[in-house]
Amino acid sequence: MLVELVKVAKSSSSPWLARVLTQFGEVAVRWCGEPAAKPGTYHVEWTVDEDIAWGQNAKPAVGVGPGVRPGGHCVVLLRGLLNLTADGAAVLDIDGTQILLDLADPLPGSVAGTWVELFVEREKIALHPYEL
Fold first, then answer.
1. CB-based contact 38:132 (threshold 8 Å)
2. Is the pTM of this model over 0.70?
3. Virtual CA dihedral for 68, 22, 81, 127, nearest 10 degrees?
């Protein structure tokens, strides 16, 4: 996904965080690139380092369409289309960007192909910049 990096910063109690703009929202999450990265556009891969549990940190979306935004104190909301693979894995599609999810328990089959929202601590969502 192409994002606009606004800035990278670190407080004493957190990892390096990047504030980024996307076509569908702005958010601050863990930055796995160079801490001295300059503002500008970057291609990034998103990862979620938390087990997803339906009804706890994953719920039906309030609206439709991709989205990223702050979801409360140090929490980030990711909204995307949830797909289940044949082997029981889950993938969140955010505007064509696929994020493989680790599951705490199998998801209900009825959520396949629906819009969902994930509520995850910002330090557990990471951006990995890469060059094309």
1. no
2. yes
3. -80
